[in-house]
Design brief:
The protein is α+β, with helices and mostly antiparallel strands. It has a domain of about 110 residues: Hotdog Thioesterase (Thiol Ester Dehydrase, Chain A, Roll). Helix content is about 35%, strand content about 30%. A four-stranded antiparallel β-sheet has the order 1-4-3-2. A hairpin with a 6-residue loop joins strand 3 and strand 4. The chain is elongated and about 45 Å long. The relative contact order is 0.16.
């Protein structure tokens, strides 16, 4: 709608799209964990092409990875021409959500069991992004398989 645009050129405000992405991804997160979930971070957000007045905006979100209390949700945004039905891939984003209990504390969430080749690919990519996020934040991973590698890094750091 015109009120969602920057005026000149009729291009959608990026902040408006970020809000829509956050809501769409939150719904996917809440459906997966069966309750409240809050946005912890937006890992990546790429505006690929502009969205203009008159475009129908289609948002899709999917949980790519579930840890103990947090999950990564990928969101894909497309526009659809209402006359031709032609779709255009416009935006992608990765967000992390944390499930909360009634007192606002992080709570355990169900595991994610990827089945299809595409789900397995998404899961592996999300796992890699998780490791990178934790590394950049200076946090130790909670995945038991990563603990020995973490121990080696700590020993190497002490030697340096």
């Amino acid at each position: 709608m015109p009120t969602h645009t920057n005026g000149v050129g009729g291009v959608l405000f990026g902040g408006m799209l970020v809000q829509w992405i956050d809501v769409c991804a939150a719904v996917a997160a809440m459906r997966h964990c069966g309750g409240a979930a809050v946005t912890a971070s937006i890992d990546r957000l790429d505006f690929l092409v502009p969205i203009r007045v008159g475009d129908v905006v289609v948002l899709q979100a999917q949980v790519n990875y579930a840890g103990r209390t947090s999950m990564e949700v990928g969101c894909r945004v497309e526009t659809e021409d209402p006359r031709s039905g032609e779709r255009r891939y416009t935006t992608k984003a990765y967000l992390t959500f944390v499930a909360l209990d009634a007192s606002g504390k992080p709570r355990r969430i169900p595991a994610l069991l990827p089945v299809t080749r595409e789900e397995k690919r998404r899961h592996a990519s999300a796992e890699q992004r998780r490791r990178e996020r934790l590394s950049l934040a200076g946090k130790a991973p909670r995945n038991e398989a990563e603990v020995p590698a973490l121990g080696r890094r700590r020993k190497a750091a002490r030697r340096a």
